[in-house]
Amino acid sequence: MGNEPVVGPNDDRDAAAESGSDATAETADADADAGADVGSETEAETGTETETDGGVRPYTVRLELVDEPGELLRALSPISDNGGNLLSIHHERGNITPRGHIPVEVDLECPPERFDDIVEGLRDAGVNVIQAGAERYGEEISIVFVGHLVENDLSETLSRIESEAEAAVIDLSLAAPDGTDATSSARLRLAVDSGRTDAALESIRSIGADKDLTIVEPLLGGEA
Amino acid sequence: MAASQRLAILGAGDVGRSVADLASEYGHEVVALADSTTATVDPDGIDVAAALDRKLGDDEIGADDPAAVFETDYDVLVEATPTTLGDADPGFTHAKRALETDHHVVLANKGPVAERYGELRELEADSAGSIRFEATVGGAIPVLSTIEDSTPHAVTAVRGVLNGTANFILTRMAAEGLDYEHVLAEAQDLGVAEADPTFDVDGTDAALKFVILANVLADGGFSLDDATVEGIQNIPGSALDLAAEDGRTIRLIGEATRDGVRVGPRLVPENGALAVTGTRNIVQIKTRNAGSLHSSGRGAGGPETATAVLSDVGRLPPL
Ligand SMILES: NC(=O)c1ccc[n+]([C@@H]2O[C@H](COP(=O)([O-])OP(=O)(O)OC[C@H]3O[C@@H](n4cnc5c(N)ncnc54)[C@H](OP(=O)(O)O)[C@@H]3O)[C@@H](O)[C@H]2O)c1
């Protein structure tokens, strides 16, 4: 256990079997109420006021649980033990993974410097953590571009990113407060294969240099 | 208690004056203080208060020639003249002269340690004196001594925010939704940015500090030319808005490893440790065996920088 490959968010759902779909008692139903219930219970249990020097951030963690009674609560205790707050739990009723596990998506918040401890705690507790924060989608990165984006053919920039940087553009937000013929900014969310982030950023830098754009890259590697 | 040292201070700006002012509090004596034109020198200790009064009253600092500083009996040369690029003079020549005559040198001046690190270390190897330069990186924040205590080879990388002016500008732009030019003008009015803020906003000042860090990690080999440097001048308010929508912000981040130095605007988590606000600085020291260490604090200012100089003085062995 522990070192399962990181998979895309939909893989398991697509592959889900119809049978063996009974949710364990304590995961209840997959609707929002159930998630909120479990969430608040756990909060009440711990009620920890976490000390932070930089506030808390939301994270989504995708877990695979063994289909056994009591598993969910046991699985989630490392979150509160390490100073995190459970926000919600989505358990897809009827889905089980090809390995026969139940996929559960957990939203939590914690101080950024505690997140690694939480993931480690879950893994130590034998919970199979398949996606954790930035590891979602292999790797997901945000980048801000600045310059004459529209005049410089934004759609060509995007297609070069997809082909040269081998990155999938998940979404784009454009801010052009002074009109599209002035300097504008765009934020891109990109999905990149695991281990290819540095190479992708390098291609993006050279695309930016070609098109006279300023690129604000994410700071990667360890908590920032 | 550290040994009492006799200080000869070159430079009577914010840093040099504060070192002179605070020296006695740290148990040291000032035997010379010079600016670019004159000096006051007394082997039994100068009258610091009177010299500072003269300097602040736009009088000559003393009746001596700045060159007389080197003729007097001193233990530690405090180099607090302006940081220059390339040959790093007059700072480099001052340090050389002190080392060649077997004196210690403590630098606040970044130029010599960023641009001519190898040469300085060679001079040090042939001298009874040693060099220290805590004040050149992060003002009051103990960065170099932390690396020294962790032993440099156990440190894999250092990154963070080491220019308060650029950080102030980015913080204000994000908070007020204002553009770069507007906030820069405000920073100049507040005295946070200098009349010529070029080196602060184009990344040069931060790059010098990260070059110094790379030199410490790799035991030399870097100068400003080896750094990849980008500034914040091209960052519009809209870029900060977009970053904020995503729970992030933009900071001028430097990174130093044994392989190189890079400084540029980067996206960081808005509530993350590196997103310090205002003129505050922060460094993250990544160690091989002990995870990351963070220290933050005031990265500039006369008394702040002077405390780093005087801590260095306290670490020097008696000559
Ligand atoms: N200020 C900070 O917060 C800070 C922080 C870290 C490092 N530093 C570094 O510390 C150094 C001093 O900073 P500062 O803020 O005090 O600078 P400053 O206010 O510009 O003062 C520089 C001083 O050096 C004097 N000087 C110039 N050439 C000289 C020469 N050939 N011989 C003797 N004195 C000479 C100047 O003389 P005049 O008065 O006659 O012009 C002035 O008194 C700089 O290298 C700076 O980069 C500063």
Structure description:
- The complex is a heterodimer of chains A (224) and B (319).
- Chain A has six helices and eight strands, in the order H-H-E-H-E-E-H-E-E-H-E-E-H-E.
- By secondary structure, chain A is an alpha+beta fold.
- Mean pLDDT of chain A is 71; it is low at 1-53.
- In chain B, 36% of the residues lie in helices and 22% in strands.
- Chain B contains twelve helices and twelve strands.
- Chain B has a six-stranded mixed β-sheet with strand order 3-2-1-4-5-6, with helices on both faces. A six-stranded mixed β-sheet of chain B has the order 8-10-9-7-11-12.
- At the A-B interface, strand 5, strand 7 and strand 8 of A face helix 11, strand 9 and strand 10 of B.
- NADP nicotinamide-adenine-dinucleotide phosphate binds at residues 10-16, 34-37, 66, 80-83, 90, 108-110, 135-136, 139, 300-301, 305 of chain B.
What layout of secondary structure does this protein have?
The complex is a heterodimer of chains A (224) and B (319).
Chain A: H1 11-14, H2 32-46, E1 57-65, H3 71-81, E2 85-91, E3 102-110, H4 112-124, E4 128-132, E5 139-147, H5 154-164, E6 168-175, E7 184-192, H6 197-210, E8 214-218
Helix pairs in contact in A: 3-4, 5-6
Chain B: E1 6-10, H1 14-22, E2 29-34, E3 39-41, H2 48-56, E4 76-79, H3 91-100, E5 104-107, H4 110-115, H5 117-125, E6 131-132, H6 144-150, E7 155-161, H7 164-176, H8 180-189, H9 198-201, H10 204-218, E8 227-229, H11 237-245, E9 248-257, E10 260-269, E11 280-287, E12 292-298, H12 302-315
Parallel strand pairs in B: 1-2, 1-4, 4-5, 5-6, 8-10
Antiparallel strand pairs in B: 2-3, 7-9, 7-11, 9-10, 11-12
Helix pairs in contact in B: 1-12, 7-8
The structure holds NADP nicotinamide-adenine-dinucleotide phosphate (NAP).
NADP nicotinamide-adenine-dinucleotide phosphate (NAP) binds next to helix 1 of chain B.
